Task: structure prediction
Amino acid sequence: MILITKEKEGNFTPFALPPSLQLGSATASLQIEGGDKGNNWYRFCEEGRVKDGSHCIVADDHWNRYEEDIALMKQLNHKVYRMSIEWSRIEPERGNYLEAPLVHYRKMIQIMLEQDIQPLVTLHHFSEPIWFEDMGGWTNLESVEIFTSFTEKVVSFLGDLVGEWITINEPNVYLESTYSSAIFPPEKPSMRNYFKGLKNMAAAHIMTYKQIHHLRSEMGFSSGTKVGVAIHIRVFDAEKKGVLSKLPRALLEHNFHTIFLESMIKGKFLFPIGLGGYPYGKGTYCDFFGVNYYSRDIVKFTWDPRRLFSELLVRKEAEINDMGWEIYPEGLYRVCEKYFRLYKQPIYITENGICDATDAQRTAFIYDHLKVVARLVENGVPVEKYYHWSLLDNFEWDEGLQRRFGLIEVNYETLTRTIRRSGQFYGELAKENEVTEAMIEKFLNQ
Ligand code: IFM
Result:
């Protein structure tokens, strides 16, 4: 059953995707691989802290089933795929690097390339070795050097196959969830640590940006190296017009978006992680603008400094997904248009997707968001790649396995994969590069 609101029914019209746009999907190692006990999320699960009581130790068993999963990507006509490397597999103890897992990732990537699927590889996607968390994680100044060494190992081993890298995924969500709302391990709230972590993550990003370019050019690649970060960008709209609503909105904008973007793209460290200077030199430390877009929040003033004087609400009449997030495709337009104007970089939509267990909303979600992408490109905003989150249902961090983001459904008892109707739609769209009347009849108007 497709859940289409009355206003929407019959409003679907054909459209073409820009010929240069490449479609695919995204995942993260911890959320799909299973089998690794050296990371901090394994410990979090062992301590029974996941909301639905589920565990990441098996997840989708992608570590063993990656060939089947790559075949599914191919079936869905992927041109690109975003994946991540599980740090604790490579460096289970500080300074002790293992080659076998790198060989495994290499094989995985080789199979993808044989299928003409171009990888974009993330080096840090939330999970990290237990020893790293225990030394204070990103709040420890040593984290910069440690992460740079890890990056060197990985890129030296895989850099001949992979030209496109994301250093850190959603540093803003990582820090917010670790130190502000503290729903991620080690669940110790501290705004001081939020900013300490941010300063080190920004430094690590700049160092590894330079390092990846250096390593690839030493390997003889004079072009094709693209390095960036994937920032989670939300639309924050003030609840009311007055200053009491505008102020917390502006604060959030600054602390959740601007400080991250300015430091990681331009090298500019704004207050409170700096005074607007460039401690690592003025430059451009991203080759694309990586945006993870999901939703918007309405910001309401509240007398609570620990919450940065803001409370996040959802518009009353909004259509929401299973997580309660507003479905707001126009936000993707607003975000890409705004940041292209500011940073003038090609855009990769490194994540965009919906939590929808019954698959009632996902097809229309894909239709609406890709239509926005087509409009952006038509209006001169260069969106080059779109990675749907996610290929498969997976382990949604503190929410556990109950949350369903996949184009492909995973049965957690049998680990069987089944392409959802929305996945079929996405696959057809990727093949045809357009939404046709026939596709609208088949997938949307029923
Ligand atoms: O599952 C996460 C992903 O790891 C990071 N971005 C948001 C997704 C959905 O919550």
